[in-house]
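Quick illustration, no need to memorize.
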Amino acid sequence: MTYVVTEDCIRCKYTDCVDICPVDCFHEGPNFLVIDPDECIDCNLCVPECPINAIFAEDDLPDEMSDFLQLNAELAKIWPVINVKKPPLEDASEWEGVKGKLKYLER
């Protein structure tokens, strides 16, 4: 099992989760983070650190977010590792809780 970053992270990109990760499985894109399923050790430390509840265990992934499992795996192969907390995107608070953000994902 792995953990999955979902749509809520798009255009927010809070990085509280990367500081706590013991294996550096997070990868950073322009406006989204992903988890590399091959690196994730299923420790669950990142889930409570996410201020917008954007991270789910694969087994708990809501049906409407199932595509994010493959998306995390795909983008983790091309985006660089992030292991140091950074400020969120400037307008992150305006995007919290907004639905339908996949169309705003920058690759």
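The CA atoms of residues 36 and 87 lie 22 Å apart.
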